[in-house]
Amino acid sequence: MSRDSEHRVAMRRNLVSSLFEHERVSTTMEKAKDVRPFAEKLITLAKKGNLAARRRAISLLGNRNIVIEEDGELVKKGTVIGKLFSEIGPRYLDRPGGYTRIVRLAMRRLGDNGQLVLLQLIGKDEVSSKESKKKSKKQKNWQAEQAVEVSQVTQDDAKTADEPKDKAAKDDKETQSQ
Fold it and tell me: Are residues 52 and 109 in the same domain?
């Protein structure tokens, strides 16, 4: 990345803070590939949600404010760590990993013709293809088991439904013969 270590750490912190604040950020492919593992580690810490994880995240990322402009004045909305632990972490509790995605953009940066990408957090409604395949196989197996159980129950019901009729017919024949 042609940067010294302090500059790389600062760039990583700033980029991940922007990612958590806006949930997507446009950057170059090299920066996105460098930042992605760091962002995913922080989200994994946020999934734990305990005090030790929060302190670890603050030490790695810093406790930066989220500031918005309302009526020409800057208003503090919260902190990046607060949003990470209250909104982003709980969103991915059921997901084992892969919280970010890199999408290539068609345009390139004017100065050096660098490949621009969009680094974004995956939405809560989206399911990875592996998970959907596993679920579909499980659903198919479950549906097959349910179909077998239903057919067995209907066969049992048919047998029990026929038995009382037969008993009633036998009782009627016995009463008529007497």
Answer: yes
Q: Which H or E run includes 66?
A: strand 65-70
Number of domains in the chain: 2
Helix (H, G, I), strand (E, B) or coil at 160: helix
Domain span at 45: 5-124
Beta bridge partners of 118: 26, 103
How many Cα atoms within 13 Å fall on the side-chain side of residue 161? 6
91 by Cβ neighbours in 10 Å (0-12 / 13-18 / 19+) ranks as middle
State which H helix or E strand residue 2 sits in: none
The string of pLDDT tens digits covering residues 54-75 is: 999 999 999 899 998 999 999 9
pTM above 0.70, yes or no: no
CATH of the domain at 115: 3.90.1030.10
Query: Do 76 and 15 fall within a single domain?
Result: yes
Sign of CA dihedral 140, 146, 149, 155: negative
| Same domain (yes/no): 96, 63 | yes
Give the pLDDT confidence of 3-27 residue by residue, as tens digits: 899 999 999 999 999 999 999 999 9
